[in-house]
Amino acid sequence: MAALRDKAALVRESLQKSQTITESMVSILGSFDHRLSSLETAMRPTQIRTHSIRRAHENIDKTLKAAEAILGRFDLTRKAEAKILRGPHEDLESYLDAIDQLRSNLQYFTTHKCFKRTSGIITHANNLLTKAISKLEDEFRNLLTNYSKVVEPDRLFDGLPDSLRPSATSPGKRNDSKKDSDNQKNSENAVYTPPTLIPPRVLPLLHNLAQQMVQAGHQQQLFRIYRDTRASVLEQSLRKLGVERLSKDDVQKMQWEVLEAKIGNWIHYMRIAVKLLFAGEKKICDQILAGIDSLRDQCYAEITANSVSVLLSFGEAIAKSKRSPEKLFVLLDMYEIMRELQSEIDYLFGTKSCTDMRESAQSLTKRLAQTAQETFGDFEEAVAKDATKTAVLDGTVHPLTSYVINYVKFLFDYKTTLEQLFQEFEESDTEAQLKTLTTRIMEALQTNLDGKSKQYKDPALTQLFLMNNMHYIVRSVRRSEAKDLLGDDWVQIHRRIVQQHANQYKRISWAKVLQCVTIQGAAPAGGGGILGGDSGSGISRAMVKDRPMAESGKNPCKYIKYKPEDLERMLSEFFEGKTCVEQKR
């Protein structure tokens, strides 16, 4: 216990020493804190002066940089002004760069109104920019006008495929032996080369000028300049080609030959206008006004509107004019070209701004189809009611028959077109529709021929007329595409009809001949010779003269005009078509 007490006393003594040391350290540290606080108070003014000096240096640097920027802008503005005052003629690209720089400077001074003269500078820059854009308008107009030339017809013809280039004859003249559009039906695969309406090197310049005018808010000025210039050139190019505005009354007054030629030309003009001129116009419009979509579409629509109207109005005038059978094939030609061009028209006039023109073209296509279909009915009725008094004295083929057969042959040259036309109105078997149409026309022709055959007083000529005409019909059908459509049964049935008329003709016509050369029923009542001068003979002298019954009488040469060999020769020549004069020779 004594030892523990001694140790406890030592611990207590140690703790007391530690406490004394701690208190001494706290006292020392407190003294340092007081001194540091006094030092900080003494240093504060110096720190403040140093910070102020540093901020002053920073402000000076910023001011110098701002001054340099402003001076740089002034310098750029002076250089831009010098270029603008010289005008765009010397160096258009440099002029456009100067406008861009002036516009950038104007934006800078508008957002940095940091000194008194800022408003004056902005006013001066705006005035200068207005002058610059005004000069740009003049330059745009001059460039566009100088490089927009009327396209000569020969240049347009050079852009057509070889098979569609006009020959020495009229481009619209139909070849009656075979439809000219055999090559046209393959024209969708043909290569068309639109003419260069504006040199390619000028297009980027015009585009940049247009962009500058739009940025300056001069969209309407740009629109008017571009529309008026290009529309005028396009219309002049079409007029030089031969396009003219014709009304329904103008069309109605024309002779058929003149009208047919104009329709052929119109088909040619439509192809040139759509595939070459309108396509070329859209190409340069897209390049010059690229990035200005609404203005571009409206410009193209108004440039082409009048030209499209002139072309389509002629088609409308034809479609609405008085119907006649001879117009059917030109109506089909017109319908065919509208169908051929439909995809191009939908592409070229596919925007909202071109809706009216696109719908007008579609309407014309429908109208042509409707008029052609109505003309079918007119033709069938005209064939059935044909009352021409054209006399066919020898019973040969009537002009109506050859006309109708040629008409039907032409129809089959348009077979594909007709099938498309039928589909305009109903979805059905187009081949069945064509067969029905052809059958009705043939039936109308047969009915009319039956009526015409009754004009003959000689029953033999009636049968000969029907035989010849039906034979011509059957032979023509067998040699044409109509055979595949009408079928072998139709051909066989009508061949039997031809044979029936042939049998009737032989029976009726040769009965008279047989009556002349036979003596049946001419036996003498009281016996005796045929001639011999027997007064009791039952045969009259007139009957003897009418029939070759004089060989056994007196002076037979007096009564016999033809010998048997003469009759044999004449009969062998009967169907060779020799005239009486030739026979006498």
TrEMBL record:
UniProt domain Exocyst complex subunit Exo70 C-terminal: residue ranges: 265-547
A Pfam family: Exo70_C
Ranges of compositional bias, category Basic and acidic residues: 173-185
Alphabetized Gene3D superfamilies for the sequence: Exocyst complex component Exo70 (1.20.1280.170)
Coiled-coil ranges (or none): none
Chain intervals for the UniProt region annotation (Disordered): 158-194
One annotated Gene Ontology cellular component of this protein: exocyst
Family: Belongs to the EXO70 family.
GO molecular function annotation: phosphatidylinositol-4,5-bisphosphate binding
The species this protein was found in: Gossypium gossypioides (Mexican cotton)
Protein name: Exocyst subunit Exo70 family protein
Superkingdom of source: Eukaryota
